[in-house]
Amino acid sequence: MLQTFRNAWKIDELRRKILFTLFIVLLYRLGAAVLVPYVNTDLLKRFFDTQLQSSILGLHNVMSGGAFSTATIFALGIQPYINASIIIQLLCIAIPALERLSKEGGEEGRKKINNITRYSTVGIGLLQGFGYYQIISRNNLLQENAPGVWAAIVIVLTFTAGSALLMWLGEQITEFGIGNGISIILFAGIVSRFPNGVINLVNKARAGTLSWIATILMLLGALAMILLIVVVNDAERRIPVQYAKRVVGRKMYGGQATHLPMKVNMSGVLPIIFAQSIASLPATVIMLFGGSSENWFSKNFNSSTIPYAIVYFLLILFFSYFYATIQFNPIEVANNLKKNGGFIPGYRPGKPTSEFIQKVLNKVTLFGAVYLGIIACVPIIIGACSKAAANTGISLGGTSIIIVVGVAIETVQALENQMLMRHYKGFLE
Question: Which residue in 23, 141, 261, 263 has its CB near the most CB atoms, within 10 A?
Answer without folding.
Answer: 141
